């Protein structure tokens, strides 16, 4: 295409480029929502091997140790042990696997650098953390509750229904305090069933959610896992070494430690008169977890990757 002739003494007019054809994308553009982030995080957590390993180990420890404990109890003639108590021992170790998974949900992406890809796909970092927390909490709560329900059913089938000799009384005093007796035989109350299944599942899931918040703040797997093990065990260890003059402090540390909270949900508190049911410890853990998550949201939104 030639440019039009210019008047004498003027430069020729510049040639205009030919118009390029416009193409419309055939892929529909959709506004991303929290639902997309939830589906993304669910795909991640169910396809990585760490989830299968940690939750598999948790199930094995909770159910396996319950079987190892409940068999000797079944041969013991002492009916003063609560029917569902055997499930506690496996859960003491199984909770560590849930804490580990809670940390790895966030720190594994920081370790591999995939967190940059995640934040590029979803620049709303608060939405990412919300999706991770929701997916992990639901999965850990469901898995722990199922494992503890299995142990409760096993314990009730093997240990429940033992005959209580008349010299033990009616289950309201002495060595039988806190043990339900129906028609002269041991049983588990509705509150015991609720605490030993849904209660402990909720407590362990909250601990895992706290581990997720700590992992978000520290961005380091080993450091966050070590910190969470300290949160679980350190209050009880410190209490055991306190002098007798600090008895009130020692009792407070024991009462609100994670092992005693789980024991209270099974209606076998380490200290106290047996009236503890773990509800107070559950509420306190929920408050602590909420505060830690608030700090994690603030940190992830205001700092560089």
From TrEMBL:
<feature type="transmembrane region" description="Helical">
    <location>
        <begin position="222"/>
        <end position="242"/>
    </location>
</feature>
<keyword id="KW-1133">Transmembrane helix</keyword>
<protein>
    <submittedName>
        <fullName>ABC transporter permease</fullName>
    </submittedName>
</protein>
<feature type="transmembrane region" description="Helical">
    <location>
        <begin position="83"/>
        <end position="106"/>
    </location>
</feature>
<feature type="transmembrane region" description="Helical">
    <location>
        <begin position="134"/>
        <end position="159"/>
    </location>
</feature>
<feature type="region of interest" description="Disordered">
    <location>
        <begin position="1"/>
        <end position="21"/>
    </location>
</feature>
<feature type="transmembrane region" description="Helical">
    <location>
        <begin position="52"/>
        <end position="71"/>
    </location>
</feature>
<keyword id="KW-0472">Membrane</keyword>
<feature type="transmembrane region" description="Helical">
    <location>
        <begin position="193"/>
        <end position="215"/>
    </location>
</feature>
<feature type="transmembrane region" description="Helical">
    <location>
        <begin position="282"/>
        <end position="300"/>
    </location>
</feature>
<keyword id="KW-0812">Transmembrane</keyword>
